[in-house]
Write a structure and sequence with these properties.
The protein is of the alpha+beta class. It has one domain (4-176): Jelly Rolls, CATH 2.60.120.10. The chain contains four helices and eleven strands. The strands form two sheets. Strands 1, 2, 3, 4, 6, 7, 8, 9 and 10 form a nine-stranded antiparallel sheet that branches. Strands 5-11 form a two-stranded antiparallel sheet. The protein is globular. Monomer.
Length: 179
């Protein structure tokens, strides 16, 4: 099954629920690509030796990698971190995540400020461009294990919205003008 994404409702209900509009308004991979969001489907069972993952890392320059497990019994300060991940923010670098197990959601803003929810499952590798407003949450299974990839040393700094005046946000918005 390929990546599934949709426009979200504006409900304040539990962030881990799907939040689909009625009727559902799916978002295609092409629409995500126009926002600078890219996706690969890999075999997470062989991530340690996967030649396809190695090729992507080499081609994209993803030299740093670590693995994070997000579950209340594993991650210290679980509730606090989940709240922080779900605050709307951007980064100065691309955000690259590869789901090795479990499930989660990435939410990104489109050009009209609408939220798009991207359902991430085992084997999904996604890149979010620097400057895109986004947030992350688990789904109702309350567990994911993800590889975090970076070009060079990792930078964990998030810039919460509003960050519209930042150079990286302006660069990102300008990059959308050609779409």
């Amino acid at each position: 099954m390929g990546l599934v994404a949709w426009f979200m409702d504006s409900s304040e209900e539990d962030q881990r629920k799907p939040h689909k509009l009625t009727p559902d308004q799916p978002v295609s991979l092409e629409e995500l690509r126009q926002l600078g969001v890219f996706h690969w489907k890999l075999n997470a069972d062989i991530y340690e030796t996967d030649p396809e993952l190695e090729k992507i890392r080499k081609d994209q320059g993803y030299s740093y990698m670590d693995i994070i497990s997000i579950h209340k019994d594993i991650l210290p300060n679980y509730e606090e971190k989940l709240k922080r991940f779900f605050e709307e923010h951007l980064h100065l670098d691309d955000e690259i995540r590869y789901i090795l197990d479990g499930q989660a959601y990435f939410d990104v803003r489109d050009q009209e400020e609408r939220w798009i929810r991207i359902a991430m499952r085992k084997g999904d590798l996604i890149t979010l461009p620097a400057g895109i407003y986004h947030r992350f949450t688990l789904d109702e299974t309350n567990y994911t294990k993800a590889m975090r990839l970076f070009v060079g040393e990792p930078v964990w700094k998030a810039y919460n919205r509003p960050a519209d005046d930042s150079d990286i946000r302006k660069k990102y918005v300008t990059s959308l003008q050609g779409c």
